[in-house]
Every structure is written in structure tokens, then in C-alpha cells.
Design brief:
This protein is of the alpha+beta class. It folds into 2 domains: 229 residues, no CATH class; 172 residues, no CATH class. The protein contains 9 helices and 15 strands. Keywords: DNA recombination, DNA-binding, Metal-binding, Transposition, Zinc.
């Protein structure tokens, strides 16, 4: 990604916003003791059981509704929840009732996303597996005690210990939900807090415009130093490659009984390396977004057809590592939090083919052809944009970002 900024005297109108109560989530690592680890692990299994039971019942009712057309068989969240609550077994009363409620609520949202025409990539809900790398459950009655301990709601007759948090909550307000997750051997709590919001000013004048150009080849972040994080991520990728080769060699040597103590040890190291990469990437994106939106009121991001680009086997790995979709989502919700204008450029806007000086647009029919990852047919350089009209030699990323800034300026001026 490449980031450049430009200042201009642009008059933009922001409609007056009434005070709302947005919900912000703080994900914090937690350190449960031995007793609470058993409780949390059992909670993961119970949430998975409730979700799968609800999904099985939903599928039966949905197929009956499709065949008969009788609205009595049309499934919804309330019907599924009431049936599961009425058919509870004795052992289920040793778990919090809120786990079942929130599991069915998540199932309801999954079906709504599947039928939502705007979410074309949402798939039909499937059964959850205990072998999945991420186990979780949600409750809406958790509390934070003394700013450093998490207290979960417990069933009648049981006693739960407090869970130590790595840091206090960053937000002040009413706690709506707490989602406990486990990745590898680490436990996390995502606490959703309803916070107070401030209204935005009606008019904003003379503000800066920031633009982000997605680049598959590298992550270029101006105004902040991410060299250390990037180096650590590359080192972890090399370790993952090494661990995968070790595991593959053990399976090849003894294909029928390859699970040994050393195999489990290497597998644990591999999972830890994957988790470290996820945490470093998330930290890098959050820092990058914070610095990007610190001194601007408008942010413009190009919209790429990433799914189609993934069909190219030479680009697929870099696209996955580029985190284009996640970076755009983080930028968008951070901009909404701060009442900044978020502009998503049209997918067919030729920011890379457009000359920011004279306005010439490269096409397939033009001399030298279009600008590709390896340059054009005349100048085989990735970072060079050569204009066939005015003869200017520009930095590829800088030229694309200047075009996005001009695109955003034209929209805001309207």
C-alpha cells in the first residue's frame, strides 16, 4: 500500500449528526487459572453444540418450508431458540443460559447474511468443528471488576474465579457483550462497549485528503516506521516454511504412525508462529490506520476485485499477505468513528493508467500498452510510470495516489 497526502481548500458539507451511542470493541488477552481454563474450554464445546443443534433443526424446518410452502415451518431465531430451551437436558443447566441464546443469535445472523443480496460471498451456514483453530463463545452478562479482572456470568450453584486481563478497558460505557476466544494456547476477550459519541461540526473547510493505493509488491507506509514489524513477519514466514517441511518429512517417513512427541512439538511451534503473524499484522494495520487518519478529514481508497485477482496463482500468496480487504475495513470503521469522510473509488477508475500531469490514460491500443505489474511494453519497470503523451517519468505509486486524491477532491467539491 502506498500513502500520500495532499492539502486543498475544499468545502464539504457534513450533515448534522444527532448524538448516537456507537459500540466499540476492545480485544484484550486474558489469563485464566486452571479452573477457569476448564470452564472456558467446556463453554467452547457447549456453544458449538448449541450452534450445531440449532443449525440441524433450522435445516429440517427450512427444507419442510420449501417443500410445503407452509409458513408454520418457516424457521427463525425465536422458534429455534424456544425449541432448544424447552428440550434442554439436565447436563445443560450447568452452563450459562446466555451461551445458548447468543449461539442461536449468531446462527440467525449467519442465515441473514446468506440471504442478503449485498453479501454475495456469504455462504450457507455449516456445522462447527471442534478441530477449528478458533474456538469461541459469547455472553452478554459479563462484567469488568476493578478495571483488571473479567467476571463471567455463572449458573446457579457454581462459583467462577475472576479472570485477569492484560490491560484495562480502553473505552468507558456499558458492556454489551463479551466474546471469549481461544487460538492455540492463548485466550482473548473481545468486549463490546457502548460509548458516548460527539456530534460533528456542520462545515469543514481547508482539510487534507489522504489516499491509499493498494500495491501487491510491497507495503509502503509513509509517515511511520514499520520496518521492524515487517522484518519480524518475514522471519516468521521463513520459520513456518521450515516447520511445514519438518512435518511433511515426518509424515512421509512414517505415514501410518507419524504422530510422535517431536511431531506434536513442531506442530505447536507452527501454530504459535501463525498466531504471532496474525497479531503482528493486526498491530501493524491498527498503527498504520491511526497514523493515516490522524491529520485528515477525507480518506480515499481504491476498490480492487481481489477475488478475481486471486485466480492468478502468481499473485495469490501476495494478495493474501497484503490484507487488502482487512485494511480497507479497518480504515472505513475508523473513519466512521471519527466522523471523517470515507470514499471508495470506483473499481473501474484507472488510477494506475492515468497520468496525473496531463490526464493521458493508457489503454491496450495505445503505444506501449497498459501499465502492468512489470511496467509497460516499452519500460519494463514496476515502479516507473512513463506517459506516452507528455513524456513524464513518474513514480507508479505516487502517480496513482495523486489520481485518487483528484478523484476524491472532485467528489467532495460536488
Amino acid at each position: 500500500m502506498s500513502i500520500f497526502s495532499s492539502a486543498g481548500s475544499i468545502h464539504a458539507y457534513y450533515p448534522e449528526v444527532v448524538n448516537t451511542m456507537p459500540i466499540k470493541t476492545h480485544k484484550v488477552r486474558i489469563y485464566p487459572n486452571a479452573q477457569m481454563r476448564q470452564v472456558l474450554d467446556a463453554g467452547f464445546g457447549y456453544a458449538r453444540y448449541c450452534y450445531n443443534q440449532g443449525l440441524e433443526l433450522w435445516n429440517v424446518m427450512y427444507e419442510s418450508f420449501v417443500l410445503t410452502g407452509n409458513l408454520k415451518f418457516k424457521p427463525n431465531g425465536n422458534k429455534i431458540r424456544d425449541i432448544l430451551v424447552n428440550e434442554k437436558e439436565d447436563w445443560q443447566f450447568s452452563f450459562s443460559a446466555r451461551i445458548l441464546q447468543t449461539a442461536i443469535l449468531n446462527l440467525k445472523k449467519a442465515w441473514q447474511n446468506f440471504f442478503n443480496p449485498n453479501m454475495i460471498h456469504s455462504k450457507r451456514p455449516t456445522f462447527k468443528s471442534k478441530r477449528h483453530k478458533r474456538q469461541s463463545f459469547t455472553t452478554d452478562r459479563a462484567k469488568v471488576v476493578n478495571s483488571k479482572y473479567l467476571k463471567l456470568d455463572k449458573p446457579l450453584g457454581q462459583n467462577y474465579d475472576l479472570i485477569k486481563m492484560a490491560e484495562p478497558l480502553r473505552f468507558t460505557g456499558d458492556i454489551k457483550t463479551a466474546t471469549i476466544t481461544k487460538r492455540g494456547e492463548r485466550y482473548f476477550a473481545s468486549i463490546a462497549v457502548q460509548v458516548a459519541d460527539q456530534p460533528v461540526p456542520q462545515f469543514v473547510e481547508s482539510f487534507d485528503i489522504q489516499a491509499v493505493d493498494m500495491n501487491i509488491g510491497h507495503f509502503n507506509a509513509n509517515a511511520m516506521s514499520l520496518t521492524t514489524i515487517t522484518t519480524r513477519i518475514l522471519h516468521l514466514h521463513s520459520k513456518i516454511k521450515h516447520y511445514n517441511r519438518q512435518l511433511a518429512r515426518k509424515r512421509k517417513v512414517n505415514p501410518r504412525n507419524y504422530w510422535s512427541h517431536q511431531y506434536a512439538k513442531t506442530k505447536c511451534r507452527l501454530n504459535k508462529a501463525y498466531l504471532d503473524i496474525v497479531n503482528l499484522q493486526q498491530d501493524m494495520l491498527q498503527k498504520f490506520t491511526h497514523s493515516l487518519l490522524a491529520d485528515c478529514q477525507t480518506i480515499c481508497v481504491e476498490d480492487l476485485n481481489v477475488n478475481a485477482m486471486k485466480m492468478n496463482k502468481k499473485l495469490a500468496k501476495n494478495l493474501h499477505r497484503g490484507l487488502f480487504g482487512r485494511a480497507r475495513r479497518i480504515i472505513e470503521y475508523h473513519a466512521n468513528w471519527n466522523h471523517q469522510l470515507f470514499i471508495k473509488a470506483d473499481r473501474f477508475y484507472p488510477s494506475t493508467q492515468h497520468c496525473s500531469l496531463c490526464g493521458f490514460i493508457k489503454t491496450r491500443e495505445a503505444t506501449g500498452g497498459k501499465q502492468t505489474l512489470s511496467g509497460d511494453s516499452i519500460n519494463q519497470k514496476h515502479q516507473l510510470y512513463h506517459c506516452f503523451n507528455c513524456g513524464a517519468n513518474l513514480d507508479r505509486d505516487k502517480n496513482a495516489v495523486d489520481n485518487l486524491i483528484a478523484y476524491a477532491a472532485g467528489l467532495t467539491a460536488e
